[in-house]
Amino acid sequence: MKQIIPLFSCALFVATTVQAQDASVAIKAGVNLANVTISDNGSIDDAKTLTSFQAGVQADLPITKFFSLQPGLFFTGKGAKTSVGSSSDATYYKASSNPMYIELPLNAVFKLPLSKDNNFFVGAGPYAAMGIAGKNKVEGKVFGVAFNSSENIKFSNDDPTTSTQEGAGIGIMRRFDYGLNGVAGIEADAFLLTLQYGYGLANIASEGNSNANDRNKHRVLSLTLGVKL
Length: 229
Fold this sequence. Notes:
Blueprint: H1 4-19, E1 24-36, E2 50-64, E3 67-77, E4 80-84, E5 92-113, E6 119-142, E7 145-152, E8 154-156, E9 172-174, E10 176-187, E11 191-200, E12 218-228
Parallel strand pairs: 8-9
Antiparallel strand pairs: 1-2, 1-12, 2-3, 3-5, 4-5, 5-6, 6-7, 6-10, 10-11, 11-12
């Protein structure tokens, strides 16, 4: 984690110095299909996919005509859901966890011209994120008697650069997330359409949780539309 911040700063400085006059900024927003791994080997249960969203800004800093660095700042939703039965049953259960993060991605992108003003792009890079909000929601019925609850997600205030997990506990989520992104999309003169997959590397369960060994990690597929400023 502590190596990522200098990486962002260095990339911004280099790209701005090389071709600052060609840099651009886009406002982006779109839908997230979020999930969390359920085993040590990284498998997920597709039925637990949670629909959320993301919004933010992204810069495009050209290094060459066909290669750019794209740092960004996003407010993004992650998490997962689970359910047993349906709301029409006498007994059913639904639960969701939707943590919200401030996320800093830095993608290296290669561009392939499709026409004078249109490019296809593909790339990858790291991201670092900090949990700032979110809700855990539960609803259901037991023999026809309904119940529901909604609670703010609790994050541990740990130092991500140490092996010690400060503030760990049952039901508490680690505040800091990091991982890798893979991106692809179409860039036009005034907008861009991006498909991105976020591959989390951080175990988000705190050590005080009995499920910490499950290696719960975020997986997020995003489709966003960006408008260039």
